[in-house]
Amino acid sequence: MKLKWNKILILAGLVILVALATAAAVTPAYKNIPYLGKYLPLIKDITLGLDLQGGVHVVLEAKDTPEAKVTQESMQQLMAVIQRRVDQFGVAEPVIQQQGRNRLIVEIAGRIDPEEAVRNLVKTAYLEFKTMDGKTVVTGADLKDAVESKDPVSGQVKVDLTFNAAGAKKFSEATKANVGKPIAIILDGEVLQSPVVQEHIPNGKAQITGYESLEEAHNIAVLLRSGALPVKVEVVEKRAVGPALGADSLQKSKHAGLVGVLAILIFMIMYYRVPGLVADFALLIYALIVLAIYVGMNVTMTLPGIAAFLLSLGIAVDANVIIFERLKEELRTGKSLRSAIDAGFKRAFTAIFDANATTLIAAVVLYFFGTGSVRGFAITLGIGIVASMFTAITVTRWLLHLLAGSGLVRNVRAYGA
């Protein structure tokens, strides 16, 4: 078989491209290179969780009042409200846990102003619609949804309210009885506006306007959607915190992961020879794809997330092992190299697909039924599984065909047969 230089040039170009991409992923200096630094992900651009980068630590204490006593049920409700507020403000991987009978610990990752975090967490967000005689017609308890929006014509920023069935009925009756009169919209005891009812509103919809920015309207909408706090809450402590693992532990974790990955790469080459080298190259492409997805989706990387990434890396290696064992079997039957590659992949596909599909189902279940770091683990694992399937079934196969067609390696023994 003659050397086919067009395929050899493709291989060489691919090696150079992946080498540059890898350097850009691990070396911040490459970020200044035009185009390369713009489009390739950098490891330092991945968002880190509280256990890896620190954030804000807040301790909240629930207090008894004549209107509401602190009970275990009210504490559970309080945790749910705080969780919804943190989630909807776009903060990833929060830690929210009860301490003792009446305290909550809230930890939020990232460079967040502790004062702003506290303000957003403990606002009561009590919404009322009152008539001129002071009668409350609907409250936040009657609210079904609250969404911020901006009028494309006037540019007016507003919050669109939708009441539930009971609230819609109350609001309909109130607007019918107060046409030509104002109904005050009050949030946390402050009158936001007192619009005059122009007509009967039977569909249970209303608007709050007068916001300076869409972000301000978004914050109000989030508070309204999450509901009012079930009990009075006081802030006992608020402070910025450092990484839970510490710089030394994080560095040791990096070294351990690097040693483990290098051991896998060396084993694949020693045991499977040329296919092992191809698998290592495909795994490098897999890692770059996953990094790009992490950066693009703004995935928050935590210690469980690192574990999920390494687990998906192991799954990717396992897929290649199954493929290469089938390839060796086909070569021993006397098939040509190209035929053996196609037959080996065809025989391995069902086993690889079944294994990855069951693991992906487990990740989906963890995501929908888990919270906090469990959901982060599930997302990271799911991304890794999909990427590993793509690289094992598509990239590895294409690379093996390219190498076989180039004529660089002709001896089937080099393929482990």
Verbal overview:
- The chain contains 12 helices and 13 strands.
- It has 417 residues and is α+β, with helices and mostly antiparallel strands.
- It folds into 2 domains: 215 residues, Multidrug efflux transporter AcrB transmembrane fold (Up-down Bundle), CATH 1.20.1640.10; 191 residues, Gyrase A, domain 2, CATH 3.30.1360.200.
- The two termini are 19 Å apart.
- The level of helicity is 40-55%
Query: For the residues shown, what is the average pLDDT?
Result: 78
Radius of gyration, CA atoms, in whole angstroms: 29 Å
Number of helices: 12
Arrangement of strands in the largest sheet: 3-4-2-12
Specify the CATH homologous superfamily of the largest domain.
Answer: Multidrug efflux transporter AcrB transmembrane domain
**What's the story with the biggest beta sheet?**
4 strands, antiparallel
Seen as an oligomer or otherwise, the chain set is single chain
Class of the largest domain in CATH?
Mainly Alpha
Task: Write the element-wise H/E pattern from the N-terminal end onward.
Answer: HHEHEHEEHEEEEHEEEHEHHEHHH
The tally of structural domains comes to 2
Number of strands: 13
First and last CA, distance: 19 Å
What shape does the CA trace take? elongated
CATH topology of the largest domain: Multidrug efflux transporter AcrB transmembrane fold
- CATH architecture identity of the largest domain: Up-down Bundle
Strand content: 15-25%
SSE-based structural type: alpha+beta
